[in-house]
Amino acid sequence: VVLQRVAPQSLNGLAVLDRSPGHLSWSLTAPLDSIIVPQLGADLPETETS
Fold first, then answer.
1. Is pLDDT above 70 for 27?
2. pTM, 2 dp
3. pLDDT at 48 (0 to 100)
4. How far apart are CA 32 and CA 21, in angstroms?
5. What is the C-alpha to C-alpha distance for residues 11 and 3, in angstroms, rounded to an integer?
6. What's the chain's Rg over C-alpha atoms?
């Protein structure tokens, strides 16, 4: 359940779990901005002001 539902939902992504005898494969596809968190003090993109 965690690999198929919880992880993908928390990252706005999709997961595929393949099971066969002697083999397990799991892949997760998610938007990069859901995975990468800016570090404290890192430069943030400037926003336009009028």
1. yes
2. 0.58
3. 64
4. 33
5. 12
6. 17
